[in-house]
Amino acid sequence: MIAEALLKNYPNLNEAQREIVGHTDGPLLVIAGPGSGKTFSLVLRALNLLLLGKVEPRELVLCTFTEKAAFELRDRISAAAAKVNYEGDLSELRASTIHSLCNRLLSIHRHRTPLGNNYENPGRSNGVALHLRKFQRDRRRALETM
């Protein structure tokens, strides 16, 4: 089901895009090449869910791999929402990189993980090295107990 406002404002959706935008139940994996309209379809799918009242902005998480793409997602959703006169508050909609989403979840729920309350984001420069050293230390301990 696709909201009438989307069909009216985006009449040239192809069949694959209509399937993506109209998928309203559960997650959806989209695999397509560069320039095929994945981001466009993702933006309209998110907006469709909002227009149909299936989700609130705070319940929606859009992830991508780069910060540039995450900012573009936010901008494109705002522009599309304005085009279809969506009046909801998009400030709580989360569009981020998968890495920042995971870091945020770890920061909020660190007390529920083996990381404990002492978890800190090691930053980009030394994060990999820090985790690699911890992995090697844990591996060494595991081998010693065998």
How would you describe the overall organization of this protein?
With 146 residues, the protein is mostly helical. It has 6 helices and 2 strands; from the N terminus they run H-H-H-E-H-E-H-H. It has one domain (4-144): Rossmann fold. It has helices at residues 4-9, 15-22, 38-51, 67-83, 98-109, 123-144; strands at residues 61-64, 94-97. The protein has a two-stranded parallel sheet with strand order 1-2. Helix 4 (67-83) links the parallel strand 1 (61-64) and strand 2 (94-97). The longest helix is centred in the C-terminal third of the chain and has 22 residues, at 123-144. The radius of gyration is 20 Å and the shape is elongated.
Provide the succession of SSEs: HHHEHEHH
Mean pLDDT score:
84
Highest CATH level, the class: Alpha Beta
Q: In DSSP terms, counting alpha (H) and pi (I) runs of 4 or more, how many helices?
A: 6
Weakly predicted, low-confidence segments? none
- CATH topology description: Rossmann fold
* Distance, first to last CA: 56 Å
**What coarse outline follows from CA principal-axis ratios?**
elongated
Number of individual domains: 1
Instruction: Report on the biggest sheet.
Output: 2 strands, parallel
Report the C-alpha radius of gyration, rounded.
20 Å
Strand content: 5-15%
Q: What is the spatial order of strands in the main beta sheet?
A: 1-2
Count of individual beta strands: 2
Fraction in helix: 40-55%
CATH superfamily: P-loop containing nucleotide triphosphate hydrolases
CATH architectural type = 3-Layer(aba) Sandwich
Derived from helix and strand composition plus strand pairing, the structural class reads: mainly alpha
